[in-house]
Amino acid sequence: MNRFTFCAALALVILIGAATALAQQPQVINVPLSRPGDPIYLEISIMSARIEVIGEDREDAMFEVTVSDGQRKIVTPSGTQSLKGGGYSLEVEEDDNEISLDMDWRVNKVVVLARVPRHADVELSTVDDGEIIVSNLIGNLELYNTNGPITARNISGSVIAESINDTIDISFTSFDADNASSLETMNGDLLLGVPDGVGIRAYLDTANGEIYSDFEVEIDPSERIVEREDSEDGTSIYIESVIIAKINGGGPVVRMKSLHGDINIRKD
Amino acid sequence: MKTYLSLLIVLVLTAGISKSATPVTEEKAWTETYAVATTAAHLEVSNIWGSVRVRTGKSGEISVSVSEVRTAPDQERFEMSLERLNLDIEADSNGVSILVGDRNERWQRMDRCRGCRVDYQFEIVVPPNAVVDVGTVMDGLVDVRDVEGVVSASNVNGPISVDGIQNCDTISSVNGGVEIGFSQAPLRDCSIETINGDITLGVPANTSLDLTMDLFNGDIRSEFPVGPLAMPATVEHVVEDGRNQYRIQQLSGIRIGAGGPTYSIASINGDVRIQKN
Fold first, then answer.
1. Could you read off the pLDDT of A220-252 as tens digits, one per residue?
2. What chain B residue is nearest to A84 in terms of C-alpha separation?
3. Domain assignment of residue A246, given as a range
4. What is the four-CA torsion angle of B220, B224, B225, B227, rounded to 10 degrees?
5. How many CB atoms within 10 Å of residue A233?
6. Measured between beta carbons, which residues in chain A are less than 8 angstroms from residue B216?
7. Do the Cβ atoms of B246 and A67 come within 8 Å?
8. Is residue A51 domain-resident?
9. Which residue, B214, B216, B217, is CA-closest to B231?
10. How many domains does chain A have?
11. What is the value of pTM for the model shown?
12. Residue B224 at interface with chain A, using a CB cutoff of 8 Å
């Protein structure tokens, strides 16, 4: 074996070992619905997770959960060893088409892939080292990821998306006329995909970023919003100045607010 | 006359107050010996306040020494406690069962006597091969020594010390440490758990065990070399009040020696130590 072959073999062994250590076999749970064919409500809240929800033509929900090994150690005479398996518990509950997925906080990182009916109201949240990805859903979505990105594709309905330190990228196929959408991040960019010919009324606010649009926009005269609140601790005054931009003649409200990021409205 | 009347009222009120507010305490102690069969006799103790100590002695008898301290906020509730907080003892040739309170409505009776308390300190001597299941709830230690039969022990707000035993079934505490020492390598499965306390497991050097761990916080130390123990995830489906619940659980596992009976160890806030005796 020449030196190159040996190095390649060694690298392969290390890679396989690392992959085995990082991820265990996924667990699959199929959840029948109480009312097959009716819209569902899905709630997933995990401290550190990559959560992907895909809407499909189906009458049940399927969850594929992969948990990485924990960091628990055991001190033995020969040194410190890792405990395989990490130790965790996860619970999925279905009640009258409302599904929740909860997990204890012992695990390092969880990857959840959920395949659900297209008509779904969804609330997803994660905090550390996480990612939220949603696609092909019809409904009202609430997506919260403190330190990671939020991506949604082919959404028909409304989206409330909040992050602190990463990008929010949402593409709509249509907007809910009755429910406004809101995308808000502190340190990331905001990207909004709007189908050609669909009208929205965008409330745009970025302190230190730029605003880009693939569409011609009609700027509405806007008034500064001033709210005053008197309490025992004193008086607080909230001032917000936003740009109100009508696209394709206006329509449902989409609020986009970032402190340090750009706002980008693209034509899908 | 008016002065005398006022004085009389004050005296009556004082008498009333002093009668209702004077705590009543009674202490007594006794020993009873029960004849049991020479085969594995059972001892069950379910205490509320106080310690339970179990030692080994002669075959064919269980000797129970009890020290009782009964207190109540007043005489009326003291009388009530005599009706509602007693020792419920059942004994036959198979063994002895001792419960504080009524066997059927234990906690309801205790709730009805607010402020009453009966501390029982148990010193019990059992045949060496007895099967022991003892527990307490408050202000006590559960202490079992040298029993050859299967031992179960529980405590809620206090420690458990079990030493010189050969096998256990369930050892559980909520707010207290758990120390278990074996005189020989255990042969059957056992569950050991606590919420807030350390777990110390002492076994002979020739022991082979499989240990499953369900732990949150705390360090794990072993004086034995350990090997990995594959623990596949379990999926459980439960229907509760019309709701479908699916639980996936995966535990960590280690193997000592060649593996053997499974000891499941669960702790929330405590260290786990596995020691050589």
1. 876 667 778 888 888 887 766 788 999 999 999
2. B252
3. 20-267
4. -70
5. 7
6. 104, 106
7. no
8. yes
9. B214
10. 1
11. 0.71
12. yes
